[in-house]
Write a structure and sequence with these properties.
The chain is α+β, with helices and mostly antiparallel strands. It contains three helices and nine strands.
């Protein structure tokens, strides 16, 4: 059984862009396109289908308690993932470009959303335990571990439709 302990943050777009440009100029960062969708499940379990680059994944996650949830992820043929995304998943699909950055031996994943969620930039970092201390990069605005920033929520309530 896999455990995911994750913190989410809103990213300051201007600070992130200049930092990303610097990292790219030094060949220290590369991004990858992601397309993912969710299959209806009950009891707050999510079933995610994802294509990351040229690889397909099926992931099942439990309800989040605190910052922790169980996670099971499996490689699947990309053709199966494409079929599931188009025929089984709730629309709109999540489209994003993900950058991975190592800071203090932790991998930060910065997602620049596209499609219905364009304009939203979220950073996530996985931890070994909920109390683990971390250094916050200067391009972080604020922590946002609430449900509305989860990808499953963004499918039902895209960022482009938010009023606030």
């Amino acid at each position: 059984m896999g455990i995911e302990i994750e913190r989410k943050y809103l990213v300051n777009e201007d600070k992130w862009r200049s930092h990303k440009e610097y990292l790219q100029s030094q060949s220290l960062i590369q991004g990858q396109s992601y397309c993912q969708g969710y299959i209806l499940a009950n009891n707050e379990t999510t079933v995610r289908v994802r294509i990351a680059g040229e690889q397909g994944y099926l992931t099942i996650k439990s309800k989040t308690v605190g910052l922790t949830r169980t996670e099971f992820e499996y490689l699947i043929p990309v053709q199966d993932a494409q079929e599931m995304l188009h025929n089984l998943c709730i629309k709109p699909l999540i489209e994003k470009f993900r950058y991975k950055i190592t800071i203090d031996n932790l991998i930060w994943e910065v997602d620049e959303f596209e499609g219905e969620n364009k304009g939203l930039i979220i950073a996530e970092v996985e931890l070994e335990n909920e109390a683990q201390a971390i250094n916050i990069p200067p391009w972080i605005e604020q922590e946002v571990n609430e449900q509305k920033y989860f990808n499953f929520y963004l499918v039902k309530h895209p960022y482009s439709q938010w009023q606030d």
